[in-house]
Amino acid sequence: MGKRVGIIGVGQTHHAAKRLDASGTELIAEAVSRALDDAQLTIKDIDAIVVGNMDHFENINYVDMWAVDGLGACMKPVFKVTTGGTTGTTVGACGYYHVASGLFDVVMAVGWEKNSESDTQAAISTCANPTLERDPFAGAIGPLATEYSMYMKAFGATEEDAAMVAARDRNNALRNPYAHSRQEVTVEDVLNSPMLSYPIKFLDMCPRSDGSCAVIFACEEKAKKLCPRPAWVHASVVRHDYTHFGDLEWKFMPTLERASAAAYKLAGITNPLKEFDVAELYLPASTCGVKWMDSLWFCEHGGAPALIRKGTFEMDGELPINPSGGVISTNPIGATALIRIGEGAWQIMGRAGERQVEGAKKALCTGFGGCSWSDVMILGADLP
After folding, report:
1. How far apart are CA 126 and CA 336, in angstroms?
2. pTM of the predicted model, to two decimals?
């Protein structure tokens, strides 16, 4: 077993559709500086850095070298990761393993994206088979719409169930000063917004954001010395498939089921709905906030709509999900899933401001991307 590791600092930018005031390198520097301030460290205290983004979106090669000035990485070991939508959680997992392995004592994980200077649709469309898949599945919206249509047919879920998730996350974002999209939204507003691809509507879907996030991991000895209340990493698990879109299992998410089951076993979780105090989940569309709840073992297959209608995942519910506003409020892709880890850590550390869940001691964080790639990280106030 490796060393025990805690998160001791988090920093993120103020996200927006277009950060015209900052280059990509400057966005990175903004998040790095805030993470160092949060941990009360200087860049000299950082032993190594892990960085990641969707580099082919901005057409920037060798991002690990290009971003050295923003990272503060001169003469430091730098490791680059790119795994699609999961890049942020994968960057976080690599930061964790860099410390758990004993190679380094203090490691900073940094994710970023400047979507205003990229073409995500052009980049994503090329991953779909040009004959069989590109027309219905190219991009993010088509596959997400397909899976929820099948879930609706199989289990009786509705468009309104998804709209309730959208309203929840978008209204939660009103308490998050870093969120890109902060607007008060009703279920009716979501249902009446323009249709993108049935049953997904405009307010069901995430934006494209400019932004960055940095999370600092430290070994047990350093974490206890440097931070009054670290967020300890209890489990970090990755599962993924390589498949054609048309061959995916549409009624549930196999990789998320396997990743969460493995993470729960490592962390000693037997009843996730009861044992987690808060969850920061990568939900690129509100429909995922219905269907994927089954695959996190919160209920049997098809049980999620009942939980949503009961208010289980609201801020005053049994398990608050996405107090930050989640992905449908903020989505700088390379940083998006790292924000889930950072926000989860802030909840454990008691630093989440107006979006703080009182007494949060156990947090679930997830990432999603690619052809069904799922990351799960579990954080706790107690040592694992």
Report:
1. 22
2. 0.96
